[in-house]
Design brief:
By secondary structure, the chain is α+β, with helices and mostly antiparallel strands. It has one domain: Thiol Ester Dehydrase, Chain A, CATH 3.10.129.10. Helices cover 23% and strands 42% of the residues. Strands 1-2-4-5-6-3 form a six-stranded antiparallel beta sheet. Strand 4 and strand 5 form a beta hairpin. The longest helix has 16 residues.
């Protein structure tokens, strides 16, 4: 897989990606991989990574699967997300990885699937739907 250096620069300059500590590992039109280190402030009351943060990681991968390839006059808006939390993401098991792949990319609707893993374990899986349209 190849990675466009401009994609990496745009990704790294995005404030939310910086704040959450996301790192673009690899990107093609067919697959995006993002990594995130687990930090203490990401843990909820029982000591596991909070689910909304796992959703944000999965969403960022899905967005970056589509956004860099949009024509200049096009934009996208998320319309639906469905997440399944399958195992706890723990502070001592290392980095989290989100991998997004397209399920269907049409002219007005795109659907992507993101899987979040940690130490080879499937932690969460999500489906993300986006409306793709002309800018106004």
């Amino acid at each position: 897989m190849s990675e466009d250096p401009n994609d990496s620069a745009d990704f790294a300059c995005t404030p939310c990606n910086q704040w959450l500590g996301f790192r673009l590992v690899q990107r093609t039109a067919e697959r995006v991989e993002i990594a995130q280190s687990v930090r203490r402030e990401m843990l909820q009351e029982t000591g596991v990574v909070q689910g909304g943060l796992l959703t944000a990681l999965a969403d960022a991968a899905a967005v970056y699967l589509l956004w860099p390839d949009l024509a200049d006059q096009r934009t996208m808006t998320g319309t639906t997300v469905s997440m399944q939390f399958l195992a706890a993401a723990l502070p001592d098991l290392g980095e989290l990885y989100a991998v997004a792949v397209p399920l269907r990319i049409g002219s007005t609707v795109a659907v992507c699937e993101s899987s979040v893993t940690q130490a080879g374990r499937l932690v969460a899986k999500g489906t993300f739907t986006f409306l793709v349209r002309d800018k106004r």
